[in-house]
Structure formats: C-alpha cells, structure tokens
Amino acid sequence: MYKSTYPKQFPANFLWGGATAANQVEGAWNIDGKGLTTAEVVQKTTDRKHMSMGDVTSESIKIAMADTTDAMYPKRRGVDFYHHYKEDIKLFAEMGFKVYRFSMAWARIFPKGTETEPNEAGLAFYDRVLAELKKYNIEPLVTLSHYEMPINLTVEQNGWASRQTIAAFNRFTETVFKRYHGQVHYWLTFNEINTGTWGFHETGAIDKDLSQTEQLQIRYQALHHQFVASAIATKQLHEIDPNAKIGSMLARMQTYPATPNPVDVQAAQLEDQKNLFFTDVQARGEYPEYMNRYFAENDIQLEMAPDDQAILAKYPVDFISFSYYMTTVTAADEGEQVNGNMATGGRNPYLEASDWGWQIDPVGLRVTLNEMWDRYRKPLFIVENGLGAVDELAADGHVHDDYRIDYLRKHIIQMREAISDGVELMGYTMWGPIDLISFSTSEMSKRYGFIYVDQDDAGQGSLKRIKKDSFAWYQKVIASNGDDLA
Questions:
Q1: What is the pTM (predicted TM-score) of this model?
Q2: Of 40, 132, 148, 384, which one is the catalytic site residue?
Q3: For the chain, which residues score pLDDT lower than 50?
Q4: Which residues on neighbouring strands pair with residue 416, listed in sequence order?
Q5: What is the C-alpha to C-alpha distance for residues 384 and 388, in angstroms, rounded to an integer?
Q6: 15-479 carries CATH number 3.20.20.80
Q7: What pLDDT score does 51 carry?
Q8: DSSP letters spanning 391-417
Q9: Is 384 a catalytic residue?
Q10: Which residues contact 340 (CB under 8 A, 6 or more apart)?
C-alpha cells in the first residue's frame, strides 16, 4: 500500500544566509587597480520612485568617467565592505550564516574587460574574503555578473550588444573558476537576467534614445549573447571543477489575472511567459515556441552563430535561483499601475505595500515556488527577498525593526509550506543582511539589513555597524533551522 508522507520542516542541510552585490557594498572603487563599472556611472536619483539606471547615455558616461568623486555616484563608496569585510563576515557568522551570496566585481579582476591577464590585486581581495568565510564555515555563493560589468566594454563595443563580450566574460569566468576550484561550490551567472529587457543596467548597452522597436532588438540580442556566455561558463565549470554547481538567477515577477475574465487570465499568462522565458532557455536549453510570435510581432530578429543552439541545449544550468519581492496584477485593460523590483503591474487591493510602494505578498512566494518546481524539476534557491524600509536609530541607540521581522517571518512560513508541498528548496539568502546602497535609487536610506550602517544618503557617517532587533531574531531562526519564528 502506498503511504503518503511529506516533509514538515526545512531539510537539515538547508542553506540559510544573506545576499549582497559588490557595487552596493564594496566601495574602494578606484584602488588596487579596479576599473570603473556600469553601476558606477549611474547617478543617484532625486525621486525614490524613479529608477535612474535608464537615464544613462554616451554623454552621461563621459561626464561620470571624468568625475573623480563619489558624490553623485554612491555605488562607488558602498558601505566600504572592502575594508570592513572581516568585521561584517564575523557578524554574519554570529547570526549563524550557512551561506553568503556576494558578487565578484568583473572590473576588479579585469579592469577594462579586454585584458588577457587578470589584476592580481583584485583576485587577492577575493582570496581574503573566501578565507574569512572558510574560517567560519560559511559557504560562498558567488554571482559572476551583478549589474557591474567594466564600463570600458560599453564604451568600446556597447556591452552585451556585441558578440565580442562573450569571449571577454568567459575569460573572466575561466579565471575565477580555476582560481577558486574547490573553494566555491555554488555559482550564479547573471543576476536577474530578465531585467536585461529594461536595458543598460543589465546589458551594458546604451539604448535610451532609440525607438521601442530598436530597444527590444538590441536588448534581446544582448540577452542572447548572455545565454550563450552562461552556457559556456557552465561547460567551463563542469570541466574545471566537476563537484561545483552553477545556476541561473531570475527576478521572479509572479502575475495574477485582475479578474476571472478569460482575457485577463490570458493576459496574465503572457506576462508570466515573458518572465519565465529566461529560465526556460537557461534550464531547458532551448528557446520556447511561444516567443516566436512575440519576436515576430515586435520585429525582433536574433543573430545566432551556427552552434549557439547546440551549446544552449548541451549546457543548461544545474539549479534555478531567483529574487522574490512582490507580485503584480495583469489585466487586458490596464488600470492603475504600481512599480516594484523592475516590475510594473496593476494594484492588488488585497495586499499591503512597503514605503516604496512594493506590494507585499508572502503567499505569492509559495505560489511561485510550486509553479517553478512543477515547470523545471530542478532545485530552487531563493537568493533575494527582503524589506526595504526607513530604519531609524531609537533613543536607546538600537533599531527596533519589528516590521522587518514580520515580513520575513511570513515569507519563511510560506517557504516551509512549499517544502511540504514537495518543492526542492536549497536555501534562502535574504537581501541584504547589512544595510547597503539601493540598486534602484542609489539611496542609503532604503535599508534592508539586520545590521545598521551609520551612513546617510550623502555618504556622511562613521560606518559603524549596529545590530538591529532582527539580527537576534534571524540568529534564532537559523539556530532552529526555521522552527522558531516567534
């Protein structure tokens, strides 16, 4: 007789931790031979609901490259993890981190992206970071490209719009795979690869002043080059370090139909297909048929080398990771729109929202985990999820962030429910365990961390690290392997 059983708790080897990106924490933008990156030419916004990454032009890049300060470019300073990494990793270890997701800045290792030999000082920094993580038995999860390619590749060949960038990227990936063989067991290729449909910040290609048709052409061509580079990186890693695993990374934008009206259901399905297209290519190894119509209707004609499709088919990723911040609502007749993490959609009247207007939907995380597991049957990894809020030091010198604890608790409960549903979930790295520079607006005042950093939007402050109330809470969550969420 078949006896039904199902897991009721997180697996014993579940990877609890946190996630950051080099361009948001490291600083040290102009020392030890590091080159300037695409992230470091994006000016801070004056309107926290405006994402300034789309404002980059050839002229603005010239101005940025001539500016030798970080006043208008906060990602150049980050929170100085470059000089505080020992202190920060010690705090992560105190919380009990099993894994720490971070990116290796391409331009710290290949400053211009075109060199044939790497910058040893850049590699030496990551040697030190990895040694510190090993000291505390924290597993590294390394992102290879997190919105921070060498700006020189934009200037010389318009970033990923050029096929030449594939070789430059894979020279970088081969270098770090060989250097960190046996030290890094989990890698990710492109952070939130689907946001390349929004342009420069992810593709490094300037397209602001082009028509929508021209923008779509250049963006999907750039993304095709990234798909090929990701497959080649997978091949490289499996040959260099067969015990290591490599995954894709998606900004998951689960969308609901606004009503049961079939036209709204179908509109929501189309939006979800455009989101999942990227994992379809990277996990299944082929372009899905439904994109043929989209490409044709938008006059997108991809140039492919003769063996591109064979490479994609032969080297799919080992696992799928994604960020999850919110869900959206889609209707055939769109009404009021809300913005989120590179997402736009209709307002959901059943959900609350953050200070930045991002709608909060813990149950949606369980929905998307089940849908992605059913679709791919590959291990899943939640590598970003968190609450950006205006945290303030209280009179007692602490940050009492019960709202963050509540947010994370509700999402972790839904993760556990998804595991009981049968989903294979590898781990959870919340974004970001220490306060950092906001990706979308370059603010410091949009804080996510368990650790408060004394720095304001103008870069003023002592950089002192202070534990928030959520620090002790997450410490308890990890120690109990997700059982104690009180």
A1: 0.96
A2: 384
A3: 336, 338
A4: none
A5: 12
A6: yes
A7: 67
A8: ----TTS----HHHHHHHHHHHHHHHH
A9: yes
A10: 253, 325, 326, 328, 357, 358, 359
